[in-house]
Structure formats: C-alpha cells, structure tokens
Amino acid sequence: xxxxxxAYIVYLVLSVSLTVWxxxxxxxxxxxxxxxxxxxxxxxxxxxxxxxxxxxxxxxxGFVALYLQDDTTITDARxxxxxxxxxxxxVLLVLGGMxxxxxxxxxxxxxRGIMDREQTPPVAPQGWVAPTPGV
Length: 135
What we know:
Blueprint: H1 3-37, H2 42-66, H3 77-119
Helix pairs in contact: 1-2, 1-3, 2-3
C-alpha cells in the first residue's frame, strides 16, 4: 500500500475522532452555559446546543475533507509523520478557533442578558406617592 494512502487513512481516523470528541465535550459542558445565557430555558438551551453541535460537525468535517488532499509524495515513515503532524495541527487549530468563536459569541449574549436583568427592577412599582410638603 502506498504511504500516502496510509497517511490519508490515519489522518481521517484521527481528525474525525478528534472532531467527535471535541463536539461531545463542548456539548456536554456547554449545556449549563447555554441555560444561563437563555435565562434558564432548558428546552431552548438543549435545542440551541444541538444546532451548535450540528454546525460544528458540518464546518469541521467539511474542513477535514477539503484538507485531505496533499500534492506531496510520501516515501518513508518520516514523511508520514510530518504530513500527519502538519495536517492534524491545522485541524486542531481550526477546532480551537471554532470553540473560541462559539464561546465569544455566547459570552456576548450572556453579558447582554445580564445587563438586561440588571436594568429591570426586581419588583414592579406599586404606584405613585405624592411628595410631602416641606420635606
């Protein structure tokens, strides 16, 4: 078997495995954060979490597929490791970038929600009281 094909297979197995692991980890640990962002609406948080995971898979697996092709010919084991390290390094950077982008966007929504909650009085006004003269 050609070493380039071996590198492709190892790259696909590792990239897909890393993508699935990161997506599951982010999904599991992001539920609480999303529930806070969405003011405790668990059902909506679960739906948004699922949509984010699907988008994460689509973008990252699409990138993995597009980044599969390599024009260089691999002739030895060292070439396999160098090609894999270059490709997996880029995939990991893209996964990290996607994660940071998601966290940044969700944190922005969370801060906006906190500001809205701070501007709303905890108790509705009961009515108007006339000022007392001489005070």
